[in-house]
Amino acid sequence: MKLVIHALICVSIFGIACKKIQLYGKESRLLAVNMVNDAPLDGYVLSWSDEFNAPALDTTNWKYRVGVSQKSYQRAANVRLDSGKLVIDLKTENFGGKSLTGGGIITKTASGYGYYEVSARLDGGYGWHEAFWTTGMSGFDDPNPIKAANARMLEIDCFEHYGEYDAYHLTYGAIEWGPYPGNVNRGYHTSTPDLSAGYHTYGFEYTPDYLNYYFDGLLLKTVDMRGVPQHNFYMWLSAIATKADATSSGHVYFDYVRAYTISPSEYNTRKTTFINALDAQRGPMASGGTDLWIEAEDFVQKSNWTTERDVQNSLIIKGFTSYSAGRDSTQLRARTGITVATAGTYKLWVRSRDFTTAPGTRKFKVIVNGITSPTEYGTHGTDGYAWQSGGTFTLAAGQNILDIFDSSQYHARCDKILLTTDLTFIPSLIGGVSNVLHNNDL
Ligand SMILES: [Ca+2]
Question: Strand pairing partners for 213?
Fold first, then answer.
């Protein structure tokens, strides 16, 4: 009965799952049924896996990673299946203009939300970089539209391991690539066991709301994904050289890659814990009055301000990076119109970035309906983003105009603005989510 249920799920959610079951016969079916019972995260069921038990790589599901990356040329010939493992051989050999060769495999079918896990032994050695990661591309030459100009593309690095660090240190993270490049998050974990000596599980849970990283079943980090670009992706299991003097031979072993999905109702139950934890990290998201939360990156006229993803996975805008005399105000300001429903007196708060290195040098001003706030922002003296208060302003119902003015022309960064009728409210941490309508009727 469980097999029937599993088969129905995989037909409807993850088409290639059934292909696997049909290809490898009764033994794999039994394995799949058992793994449903062993789903590593509450609410999830297995939807697809490759246990690498076949005599050769299933090229209906996988393509080889081929070509130059960093210090090595990746070859299909370096990838093989042996005793139930996918093995990537790392070699010193002259090929394709490089003196080192690595390899990897990439899924041919895109995957979506779910939990993904590999079991791997990372014995590449010095100078090699092993990884389980995802991107919207199924190859660097992939014409997939997710790679199109201005497409917001997310890379998830479930684990990366660099042999030159040591055998215990792994990193993980997510990166947004163009048009707002930057780290959504980055972290690392130091393992007690030697990652090169045995198999360990590396997993990530990708959802519309959060991204979880796991090592050997241990939750390493929960990242807020609300507002972060999301799309289906291809899985990459790969090993390349990052050092020209990488060790002369090494091997990376993958025991399996497994994909799990969760039903909407199970997800609604599961997500509560993680969303509550993330919201607690945001600080207060509402005052006792009327709040206008305004993201700087939503300003309709940005002029020379550029949008970037910065620490704490916030989207921000950044001004000029070097001073030049003679720039006029239209070059220095970002401007937006916001529609206000409730007229009144509002207190201004601005979330800016400062640095402990040369604090107070990346500065900007905020102008509300032509009146400049007395505070200059980017001067709070703490490392990272913080809120600064900026006086009170009268807002009329209807159209109001805000400017962010680049007063230092030197790496000024603004995350968001709060205008609130609660004059005693003090925002902290990330704050609330955007709740205003912007318009370009200026
Ligand atoms: Ca922002």
Answer: 204, 221
Q: Which of 140, 138, 203 shows the shortest CA–CA distance to 170? A: 203
Question: How many angstroms separate the alpha carbon of residue 367 from the centre of ligand 1?
Answer: 18
* Same-domain pairing of 221 and 262: yes
Pairing state of beta strands 371-372 and 249-262?
unpaired
Q: How far is the CA of 172 from the centre of ligand 1 (A)?
A: 23
What does pTM read for this prediction? 0.80
How many A from CA of 417 to the centre of ligand 1? Answer: 8
CA of 189 to the centre of ligand 1 (A): 28
231 CA to middle of ligand 1, Å? 21
Which residues are paired to 420 by β-bridges? 291, 347
For 235, residues 6+ apart whose C-beta sits below 8 A from its C-beta are 106, 107, 111, 116, 132, 133, 134, 257
List the chain pLDDT tens, one digit each, 442 residues.
Answer: 333 333 333 333 333 333 333 223 333 333 444 444 467 999 999 999 999 999 999 999 999 999 999 999 999 999 999 999 999 999 999 999 999 999 999 999 999 999 999 999 999 999 999 999 999 988 887 777 677 776 888 999 999 999 888 889 999 999 988 777 888 888 999 998 999 999 999 999 999 999 999 999 999 999 999 888 899 999 999 999 999 999 988 999 999 999 999 999 999 999 999 999 999 888 999 999 999 999 999 999 999 999 999 987 889 999 999 999 999 999 999 999 999 999 999 999 999 999 999 999 999 999 999 999 999 999 999 999 999 999 999 999 999 999 999 999 999 999 999 999 999 999 999 999 899 999 988 8
**387 shares a domain with 427:** yes
CATH code: domain of residue 310: 2.60.120.260
Contact in structure between 133 and 236 (CB atoms under 8 Å): yes
Residue at 283 is within a domain: no
Query: Residue 136 in contact with residue 144, Cβ under 8 Å?
Result: yes
- Cα(252) to ligand 1 centroid in Å equals 40
Asked if residue 302 and residue 252 are part of one domain, the reply reads: no
Rounded distance from Cα 185 to ligand 1 centre (Å): 15
Write out the residue range of the structural domain in which residue 333 sits: 291-439
Q: Are residues 61 and 187 in the same domain?
A: yes
According to DSSP, the residues that pair with 98 across neighbouring strands are 95
Please tell me whether residues 237 and 304 are part of one structural domain: no
Cα–ligand 1 centroid distance for 349 (angstroms) = 13
Gap from CA of 314 to ligand 1 centroid (Å): 5
229 and 373 inside one domain:
no
Other CB atoms within a 10 A radius of the CB of residue 112 amount to: 13
